[in-house]
Amino acid sequence: MGMDGTIRTRFLKPETPYFLSHSVGLMPRGAAATLNKQVLDPWRMQGQSWDEWLAILDRFRTALGSFLNADPALICPQANVSSALTKILFSLPQPDRRNVILLSEQDFPTIGFVALQAERLGWQLRYVPREADLTDEEVWLDAMGDDVGIVLVTHAYSNSAMLAPVVSITQFAAARGIVSVVDIAQSAGTIPIDLALWQADFVIGTSVKYLCGGPGAAFLWVSPQIVETCTPLDVGWFSHEDSFEFDLKQFRYAPDARRFWGGTPSVLPYAMAAHAVETLTAIGIDAIHRQNQQRLGRLIDGLDPALIRSEPREGRRGSHLLYAPHDMEAAAARLEEAGIRHDRRDGALRLSVHLYITDQDREAARDALAG
Fold first, then answer.
1. Dist CA 293 CA 270 (whole Å)
2. What GO molecular function annotation could you give as one example from this UniProt entry (predicted)?
3. Predicted pLDDT at 182
4. What is the pLDDT of residues 326-365, one digit of tens each?
5. Rounded distance between C-alpha atoms, residue 95 and residue 14, angstroms
6. DSSP labels for 206-263?
7. Which residue in 16, 23, 126, 302 has a CA-CA distance of 20 to 30 Å to 116?
């Protein structure tokens, strides 16, 4: 069965073309049945079902670890990317002479909002300018001066679709003693990621977008080289080395990523998210990436290059497009008339390509954009 046939059997696809995976990925078939079987049925039949529910979280960590080539013990479920980054920044030692957090003016606001809170700990923020080519490793290496203690990198930027050279950045940071945090919210599920090859200290992401797992199932990964030095402030009984010791006056951090967990965990989102990651794994991230880039490339080739507001170069782009036609409202009306789901950012129409986009969908989007 070809890729398109596989997709038709594995995802619940709307009748009209869906180009919003940068916001919410489509639901895999079987997600509702998985939720019922693993969460709701045990609860309905036996009430207290923590053995079954905690197994769901283990399943999610195992599935995600396999997908990202990472040890599941170094993955901790989180409610969202903001919470993950907050826990990371407030787990690190107080800054010394290296008191600068480097990030980009192209970062998603939630990253910037959290980084601003670190100023109360003595950190200062420095931004790579919005107009910089964030795909160029020299831009990053030149910005990581002697006073930089943390670098926040977004693998694929949500507006520009620029793909940061993560390996170069994290290797340089590791050599200079700079803590690196990589946000993969807009790349996980559409671009191959091998955490064993990266030298990042932390990686954060969410299942809601290209991982197709729905909202509420975010995560963080922590390097084995740094995990034992982290002392999160936001803790709870699931952060404890032995969650069932129940000694009110004795707290010991879990030896692995669980120290970032907190209190009683959410379960329901992770049943669907684990199922989604397993679905993508069965299809294969290399095949997904190859098809996504091929169809995005063909969409870009059919448009006026002067009106493209996102990164067009294969190998340096994520999986979405920003296009600013001369008559924005007319183009938007054509998209809506064709039933093509999209949104707007930075004065442009934004469309993303994922594995369930067909050639027919692409052609419809191109015709609507080009007029």
1. 28
2. transaminase activity
3. 98
4. 999 999 999 999 999 999 998 999 999 999 999 999 999 9
5. 50
6. ESSSTT---TT-EEEEE-TTTGGG---SS--GGGBSSTT---TT---B-SSGGGG--S
7. 23
